[in-house]
Design brief:
It contains 6 helices and 8 strands; from the N terminus they run E-E-E-E-E-E-E-E-H-H-H-H-H-H. By secondary structure, it is of the alpha+beta class. The strands form 2 sheets. It has a 4-stranded antiparallel beta sheet, with no helix packed on it. Strands 3-6-8-7 form a 4-stranded antiparallel beta sheet, with no helix packed on it. Strand 7 and strand 8 form a beta hairpin. The longest helix is centred in the C-terminal third of the chain and has 64 residues. 13% of the residues are buried.
């Protein structure tokens, strides 16, 4: 069976028997000769041809040996290769059954001259590895053709029922398609920081396209699309949508403070509502410092307007008065101004450092919020993708 060109090639053992009244003799007059063998070109032939021939029409009865009995019975038997047109229905490929017809009949002789009948036997059928013959029937018909109205013509139509062996196509077409479709779901599990999210999806898309082209090359160019072809086409569409969704997720992941903040509606409906459904822990409020920490901060608060210890106050009891490292000067109040300047500079620098870390903390929080939004959207796309695969698979199974 050649599905591409919708042609059935069959090697048949053909046997034809007819009676020729001009080939009758008396064996006693010819030395007891009851049968002879001659070339088929030396006697009259019924010129039976295959009506739905896929190649050149020719009289396959010529150039063979025939056996003739003394009562006029002619036996013609020889193996013949026929090429017949066969309308292939590939909708259920590779679990399909095909019914092909081989119509034999005389082309020049009407039913008043030749009445043809026949039968078939599939006990000697040998498979080609892909098809099994599950039935062979023969039916005699009487047809009327418009070019010779009112004149009956007889023919014999053989109905050959074939069933495909699906194992080869399951391993080479269905299994890769199923694995690639399931593998495409792994795109949503890849972390964005890996850098392989989009390339992995595009690789699966190209693989499905290659298998779809291989399937198209083996199928006939008709309006009937096999179910496996529909599944391939749907898989290509779904993988394309998954690549599109991954592009959106990558874009969200790399969004941050330099672009904009997470919209309020996205924070409410996606991060808090949808995130809680997927089991993400979302902090609703920023952690505030405790009262004890605030007391400590107040304890070490510096007021630059405070004066230092008076000059006449005693020195620290921890240091002896006669220590060489401690010197009291009468003009200490004069050295107090440079200290105030240094402290102001230190305080200014501390404020800048504090502002820098506060700003960095805010940017990190916003960036984390974008990352969380991208992860939740990725999980949501995974669920939608899995649901679509299940629905499409169920629909194709039901239709098949």
């Amino acid at each position: 069976m050649d599905e591409r060109y919708q042609k059935l090639n069959i090697n048949a053992w053909v046997t034809l028997i007819w009676h020729d009244e001009f080939l009758v003799w008396d064996p006693e007059r010819y030395g007891g000769l009851k049968g002879i063998k001659l070339s088929s070109n030396q006697i009259w032939l019924p010129q039976v041809i295959l009506y739905n021939n896929a190649e050149e029409y020719e009289n396959f009865l010529e150039d063979h040996i025939v056996k003739i009995d003394n009562n006029g019975t002619v036996l013609w038997a020889a193996p013949v290769v026929f090429h017949s047109n066969c309308q292939v229905n590939v909708r259920n490929f590779p679990f399909d059954k095909q019914m092909c017809e081989l119509k034999f009949g005389p082309w020049q002789y009407s039913g008043a001259e030749i009445n043809i009948s026949g039968k078939g036997d599939n006990s000697v059928f040998t498979t080609d590895g892909e098809w099994d013959m599950v039935g062979l029937t023969a039916q005699s018909n009487i047809e009327y053709y418009p070019d010779d109205p009112g004149v009956p013509y007889t023919d014999v139509t053989y109905n050959v029922s074939l069933r495909r062996r699906p194992l080869f196509h399951i391993i080479n077409l269905l299994l890769p398609c199923g694995l690639l479709t399931i593998g495409s779901m792994l795109v949503f599990f890849l972390p964005v920081d890996s850098g392989e999210k989009l390339s992995f999806g595009i690789t699966i898309l190209l693989s499905l396209t290659v298998f779809l082209l291989l399937l198209a090359e083996s199928m006939p160019p008709s309006s009937v699309i096999p179910l496996v072809g529909q599944f391939y086409a749907i898989s290509v569409v779904l993988v394309t949508l998954s690549v599109t969704a991954s592009t959106v997720v990558v874009n969200l992941h790399h969004s941050g403070p330099t672009r904009s903040k997470v919209p309020r509606w996205a924070r409410k409906w996606i991060i808090h509502r949808l995130g809680s459904l997927f089991g993400f822990k979302v902090k609703t409020k920023t952690e505030q410092p405790s009262k004890e920490k605030m007391k400590v901060f107040k304890t070490y608060k510096v007021n630059l307007n405070d004066n230092f210890r008076p000059l006449d106050s005693p020195p620290s009891p921890l240091l002896p008065r006669n220590s060489p490292d401690v010197k009291f000067s009468a003009n200490r109040s004069q050295s107090q101004a440079p200290c105030h300047t240094d402290l102001k500079l230190i305080y200014k620098e501390l404020k800048q450092i504090r502002a820098y870390f506060d700003n960095k903390s805010t940017e990190d929080d916003e960036r984390h919020e974008w990352h969380l939004l991208a992860t939740i959207v990725d999980r949501f796309c995974l669920v939608i993708y899995a649901v679509f695969i299940a629905i499409c698979s169920a629909m194709i199974t039901v239709l098949g």
